[in-house]
Amino acid sequence: MRSMVLVAVLVAVVSTGCGEESSPTLPSNGSPANTPPVFLSWEPPSDTLDVHVGESVTFSVEVSDPDGDPLSVQFLADGVEAAGDASWTLDIDTERARSVSVVVSDGEAVLSRQWTVRGSIAPPPAVRILDATPLPDFGELSVAWLPGVDALLRPLAVYEIRASPAPFDSDGDWDAAVTRQTVSAPAGPVRRMAATLKGLESGAWYVTVRGLDSRGRLGRMSGSVQVRIVDRRVAVTVMDAVTRLPLGGLRVTVAGVVGETDANGQYVLEGCAHEEFELLVDDGNADGIGGYFDYFGVHSFGHTIVQLIPDEPVASASYPDFSTMYRHLTTIRGIPEGGRTRRWELPLNVYVPAYTNGGLDYQATILAALEDLERVFRRDLFTLVDRPPSVGLRIVYDRSAYVDRYAFESFTADHYPERGRITFRAHYAAAHHASFLTVVRHELGHALGLVNHSPDLGHLMVGGTAPLAPHFTPDERRVLGTFLSLPRGADPLLFIQE
Ligand SMILES: [Zn+2]
């Protein structure tokens, strides 16, 4: 008897392998020994399972009995009988650890196997973003999304909205986002959630939304939508181009919206509807302000300083108005954008070498003319340098020259004067002092910005003949004074006549 038991146990161990329990029953009454059933396979293969709450897990076994005995298979959940088939499905509805076992019996021997199932809450699924739209107030953005549910199909408690200049591809991108907003879900059911992000700078932004469940677990990232934030504020400051005094009470029209400048010459339009718009400034409705050329230009959002040119009559019969004379004399031809005010940065470096001919001191005469011009225009126009400047004007005296002339030698890449040269004929003598001085002023007029000749024979800037006027006429002084007052790059073509 005793040796028989040992044999039976040994057979059971060999046939079932490790991890299984078997309890063969002793044979009785001389009948042949029972061989217990064996597992051929089982699912899931792992003993310990982590399953998200709301999901299910199916257990199954394949068993065989070497004796061909009929087998019963019984699954138990936490020791309670669950089902009597070769497979059984457990719905995970709690985070509590569950014990699942299966017991196989051939009527005598029992075989069993056990699993431990731990429930865990899955993170909320991704939220679907409906739209992200810039609001009229600069830097504000409206984001809308579909309300989400957690793994147990309960509405999400909280949503977090983030915006970043970079796309959201990883949790690192999420952590790096600077603009954040947290929104609690309302108590009742809603069909749509929305929030407003504020304080976004101009530029492209990526926006994403994630939900948090009641345990504060962050849902999956929903990808991001791209939005462009544009500062739609338009500010206009209007001033006198020559005196730089602010001009209040002027009518300002921005994209069809009419306003008026305040005492500081300012008009502000918040949230302009158009990115590019026409800006018109006119004095038509202002008492005591009249006397300026209207301004018209195409602009985009931001701050625009409009410098109005005083509209005074011109004495010269060669021009219909000041604006025409201004453009005619100052427009540089032959370079791109030559219509823009492209003048030297003042004061202008000037190199005046010493030279005397026939008792005429060229250098002293030219220096006197430079000082005279600074008095006339009441500003520092020139800086004397002792060698030809890398940026500036140099004077040369040339015996072989047949005319006195001013020439640009080079421009910067954006077409501002870089180097210029005035060539004087070297033949003037003491007797020609007055005419030489007139020529010096004429050429300096070119250098300062009156680049073209005037058709008016009474003008210092007349071309093709020796000037009769020894000095700039009041008209010419106003053109040059305005030219030197306007900022470099201001476009005189934008000044239109009323
Ligand atoms: Zn000339």
CATH architecture of the largest domain: 3-Layer(aba) Sandwich
The CATH topology annotation of the largest domain reads as: Collagenase (Catalytic Domain)
Computed Rg:
47 Å
Question: How many discrete structural domains?
Answer: 4
The end-to-end span amounts to 128 Å
- Please, what is the CATH homologous superfamily of the largest domain? Collagenase (Catalytic Domain)
Q: Quick check: average pLDDT?
A: 86
**CATH structural class of the largest domain:** Alpha Beta
Helix content: 10-25%
Largest beta sheet, briefly?
Answer: 6 strands, mixed
* Strand residue content: 35-45%
Structural class: alpha+beta
Describe this structure in words.
The chain is of the alpha+beta class and 498 residues long. The chain has four domains: 119 residues, Sandwich (Immunoglobulin-like); 101 residues, Immunoglobulins (Immunoglobulin-like), CATH 2.60.40.10; 75 residues, Sandwich (Immunoglobulin-like); 175 residues, 3-Layer(aba) Sandwich (Collagenase (Catalytic Domain)), CATH 3.40.390.10. It contains six helices and 31 strands. Strands 1, 3, 5, 6, 8 and 9 form a six-stranded mixed beta sheet that branches. A hairpin with a 6-residue loop joins strand 10 and strand 11. Helix 3 crosses helix 6 and helix 4 packs across helix 5. The longest helix has 16 residues. It is elongated. The chain starts with a helix and ends with a strand. The N terminus is likely disordered. The site of zinc ion (ZN) has 4 residues, from helix 5. Zinc ion binds next to helix 5.
